[in-house]
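Q: Two folds, back to back.
A: First:
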Amino acid sequence: MAFFGPSRDHLARLDGALVVITGGARGIGAATGRLFALHGARVVLADLDLDVAEATAATIPGARAVRLDVTDRGSWRTALDEIGGDIDVLVNNAGVMPLGHFEEESERTTDLILDVNIRGVLNGMRAAIPGMVARGRGHVVNVASMAGMIPIPGMVTYNASKYGALGATLGARREYDGTGVAVCAILPSAVRTELSSGAQLGAGMPTVDPEDVAAAIVDTLRTRAARTSVPKWVAPGWRLVEAFVPEPVERLARRLIDDRRTLDLDAAARTAYTERIDRHATDHARDEESAR
C-alpha cells in the first residue's frame, strides 16, 4: 500500500515524515511548513534566501533550512545531500510573479519566471520522484495557480508558466500512476502574500490567505486529487464558464470586475518585492551566462 493512500489516518502518518518545501522562507511555503510540523513531520524549508529561511525555520518546531536554487540541478543535488534521508513529501512551492505589460517585460525577467515556475517544478520532481518510486511510496504537491487555468491581463508569462506547471503535474501523475507516488497540483486564487503586493485584491477576485493554501496542500495527502483549487469552487466554476459562457458575455463580466487591474499596480507598495525579483533576475542571468 502507498504510504499516503486515501485514509482517515493520513495526518497520523505524517508523524516523523520528511517534508521538503521549496520557497519555504515566506508566504505559502512558511505556512505549509508550520502546518506539517504541527502534525509531527520533519520539515525542511528550502529557499534561495537562506537567511530568511533560517529565521522562519527557527519559529517552527524541529524545522531546518537549506539553500536551494530550484532552477539549478546541481543545487538540488547539493541540497538533497545536505538534507539526507528519504523524502516522503515534496512541495514544489517556489515561484515568482512579476506583473505588468507584456511588451515591457525584460528578457531576464521572462527567463526567471519560466525557469523558476516551470524548470523548478521539473527539477524538483526529477530529484525526488526516483527515490520515491524505488521505495514504492511518496507524495509530490506542485503549487501552480488559478492563473494556470484562467488567463489574466498583466500575467502573460506568468500564465504560461503556471499552465506549464499544471501540465507537468498532470503528465507526471499519469506517468507514475501505480508506483505508489501521487503527484498533485494546487491552484490558489489571489493569495495575500508579498507576491500580490500592490495589486487590488477582492472586488470579484477570490482571495485567500497562505494558511488556506497550506491546508489544501496537506489535505491532498487524504484526497490525492489531481488538482485542487483554493477556494475549491473556482476550478469547477471556471470549467463551466469555458464550456457554456460565450466569449462576449465573459468579456463583459471581466470588464465589470476589472480583470485588467494587474496592469495598474501600486508601484510603491510593490517596491520591496520588485527589487528582490529584479535582483534575482540579474543574478540568474549572470549565472546562466557564466554557465555557457
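A: Second:
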Amino acid sequence: MFKILVVDDEEKIREVIREYGEFEGHGVWEAKDGMEAIDMCKEQDFDVIVMDIMMPKLDGFSAYKEIRKIKDIPVLMLSARGEEYDKLFGFEIGIDDYVVKPFSPKEVMARLNVIVSRHNKIHGNTDLNQRYKFEGLEIDMIGRNVFVDGVKVDMTPKEYDLLFYLVKNKNVALTRDKLLDEVWGFDFVGDDRTVDTHIKMLRSSIGIYRDFIVTLRGLGYKFEDIK
C-alpha cells in the first residue's frame, strides 16, 4: 500500500483514480489545483503524485518544480495533449512518467506501481547509502546531496538518480538502453535522446568534473574514476 496524491481540476478524473487506487488498497488524497497540491505536500508525505499539466492557478509543471524543492516525490503527469515537446520538457524537469488523456485507469495504476517500486529500489538500496569523493566532487547518496568544490549543487531528481546509478556502477560501460531501464523504468515511453539530454544537464551541473562521465561512442556512458 502506498499514498497517492491526485492533482486535477476535473473531479471525475480524481474520482476514477481514487476508485482504482483504493480498490488496490492504496490511500488516495485529492487536490484541485497546483497550489493546493504544494500546500498538501508541505503538510504530509506521499509516495507518488498523479498530476494534470493544464490546471487553473498553477500548471502541473510549475507545481511539480515547487514540490521537488521541498520533497523528493515521484510523479506521473497527465495531459490532454501528446506533443513530444511536453513530454521532453517534463522528463527534463524530472517527472517519472507521462500519460495522455483519455487514459486507461488500469494502465495508470500499473505505471504507478512501477514508479513507486523503482523509486524505493533506488533510494532503499543499501549500496547507495554511501558518500563518495572524486577529487572535488562529493556525492552523498544518503542525503541526496552533491557538492562541487564544497558548494552544494541543485539538480533535478532524475539528474540525481542518473548520477547515483553511474557512480554505483563506476568504471562499468552502460548502454543507453540499460540506463533507460534502470533509471527511468522498462516501460518508459522516451528514447535515447532522454539519456543524452540528462547527461548533458548532469555534466553542466558538476562543472569542471564533467570529464568523469565518459561518452562511449555508439554505446552509452560510464562514470570513470580516472585515479
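Q: And?
A: The two ends are 45 Å apart (CA to CA).
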